[in-house]
Amino acid sequence: MKTLNYSHTLLPYIPFFYVIWSDDLLSASEIEVVKKTVSEDDGLTATDRKILLSWLDKKHPPKNEEIKHWQQLISKSGVTLIESETYPLEAFSQKVAAFYSHTEVKNSNLRNIEINLGIQPNHYSYLFHVDVVHQVSATTYDAKEIDSIFNHAHRGEIENIRTFLQDPIFEWGVHRPKEQARKRVLEQLKALANEGWGALAYPKAYGGKGSLEAYAVIFEYLMFVDGSLAIKFGVQFGLFGGSVQSLGTQKHHDAYLKQTGEAQLLGCFAMTETGHGSNVRGIKTTATYVHQDRHLVIHTPGKNDNKEYIGNAMDSKMASVFAQLIVNGKNQGVHAVLVPLRDEKHQTLPGIRVEDNGYKLGLNGVDNGKIWFNQVQVPVANLLDKYGSIDANGHYQSAIKNPNKRFFTMLGTLVGGRICVAKGALAGAKMALTIAIKHALKRRQFNDSIKIQEDLLMDYPSHQLRLIPKVATSYVYHTVLQRAMEVYANGQTDKRKIETQVAGLKAVITWFATDTIQECREACGGKGYLLENRIADLKNDTDIFTTFEGDNTVLLQLAAKGVLSDFKSELNSDGFVGVLKLLSSRLTDKLATINPAYSNKVDKDHLYNPKFHLHAMDFRLRRLTDSAAMRIRGYIKKGIPSYQAFLKVQTHLLQVGRAYSDVLAVKWYYDFVAQQPNEPYQKLLRQMGALHSLSIIREHATWYLEEGYLGSTKSKAIRQRVERLSTELRPHINTLVDGYGIPEKLLTAPIAS
């Protein structure tokens, strides 16, 4: 071996240059980092500098033979790589140099390359063919601090519920048949109610704290116990109790809220019908007012007009029934009516028929059922009349005269439920990620037949790429849902806007959870298929989240229509100026995309910059919105009815809804990051934000390439940066999943312990 070709001052650079060229991502910014280090290293001779600078020439790279020679030089040194070193590559390189020069080598300049290029042991440990002292997890960050950063709000309730869930009644187990599971979940529900957890969102006068945000946090934590418990909790206290609170008036609150919060009165939320699904406005159940004795007649008119998939149907004594309100022969639209279902002996009342939905894919601890009403009479006082009432003379009254506005105002009360569904789905994804990653940090598999010890699953780049970006995304969505609930609960924006925001977020987050849990199942192999390891139940229990509280495809269209309404409103309000602004933004976008310097800009600072992430996603949203609006306008100009015009661009609208949700999530996340005072942790949060954002851009790379926003070089660089960021976060991945704050006692999967 021609080791004498390299001076003792040049030798420490060899491992660095081997990593740089093996990494195949020598961008302009990386070249400048290395050049700066070389220029500031006073220990180098002029000849050394000339050689090192020649190795940075991308037009005339080192020959393959020389790179191979570097690898052999490193391997034959017999030096051990210790990942727990503060600067592991610097320390390793100095030991390699010392082996060949037979003298101690110190060169602190090398750490500048290691730090500024973000080189982690996982970038190179598999390249060197040396013994590696693996570091399963770095100690740079503290999981408790991460937990505190992301869960600072309602800290008291969080700590209390974590402690309360240590009770043996919440121990996870396999409960079959469904009757056994339902009994267990009902016992757990009543235990929560006895301690006041169910009433959290209700006013203090009814046993609560008036905190919808705290209630949503509890809902999330119950997913760590059992998805069935979370849903039962949500139906009883959120949907049923929430409808009484949000759609009713004081007489309803006084009569029912305290009993509901204590689980003395079990109720259900009867909105969905067999024949109408997500089309709430089209439901067929009627509530006809009879003035003679001041009552409402609740009736199921047709075969498929029954209420279906109603949670708590088998246990509840009362239902909040959504029906078409008929007053004096006129349909006043959908309203909610409280309808008793069972007597004190739990027997169904006359005119009520309830059937069990039976076994489901998941959530078999929830008693879903079908309900029919046959001319059931209830007092007019049972009408939840906050937005529409019937006066003493039998006339319908509402402060909201426009029926459409009244309908959407009533449905606006469902927004909180959609946020909770998204939080529950995300909690399932967090649990699955924690299990899969802790398994990957223990399980070893395969090697190159030279090593005595097999490699950890988590040290394979492919395994990192399938799980680590999802951890980053989970933190982004956690932050976003916290803000959404804060905005909704505090009334900081108009209801139509928050409904648009939550519709899109609920869709993308529940789909993310479904994809993530499936990825975790596969990442755990056969172990992930065993019930004892929890992922199977998480997979089955959260699958329904994509379609209840609104089918995701429908919700994305709802979000898109909200975007188009804002688009139209902006143009109408600005008039000619608005048109000029639109044309100007189009021109600016076009100039940006056809500029090769931008479309192929690949340096690290640019690709990691939140401004680039937001610009890229906002560009996609504006282009899709603009083109969708123009297409709809073109169809309408041809005389096609607006409803048909929307149908013709339906798939386009889905992309608008998705793009809108992506922009909103990234913007809100970076707003959160900017508020963090702790710089080291802010850096970690920015890394996760970059990984999430680049993953989204990469997912839509085809579209960006077609639009000319990305050049092929930049597209490739983004793919490489996603891989690189995943590897950079690898040392901290155990800390990150611990940062979720899942109580250890609830993390019962054997492969995670």
Q: Give the low-confidence spans.
A: 575-580
**What Rg, in angstroms, do the CA atoms define?**
30 Å
CATH topology annotation of the largest domain: Butyryl-CoA Dehydrogenase, subunit A, domain 3
Largest sheet: 6 strands, mixed
Number of helices, where a helix is a run of at least 4 consecutive DSSP H or I residues: 28
Q: What is the overall shape?
A: elongated
Oligomer: single chain
**Distance between the terminal alpha carbons, to the nearest Å?**
47 Å
The residue-averaged pLDDT reads 91
Hey, roughly how much beta strand do the residues contain?
5-15%
CATH superfamily of the largest domain: Butyryl-CoA Dehydrogenase, subunit A, domain 3
What's the CATH first level of the largest domain? Mainly Alpha
Structural class computed from helices and strand pairing: alpha/beta
Please tell me the CATH architecture of the largest domain by its name: Up-down Bundle
Domain Acyl-CoA oxidase C-alpha1: 412-562
Domain Acyl-CoA oxidase/dehydrogenase middle: 268-376
Cofactor: FAD
Domain Acyl-CoA oxidase C-terminal: 610-752
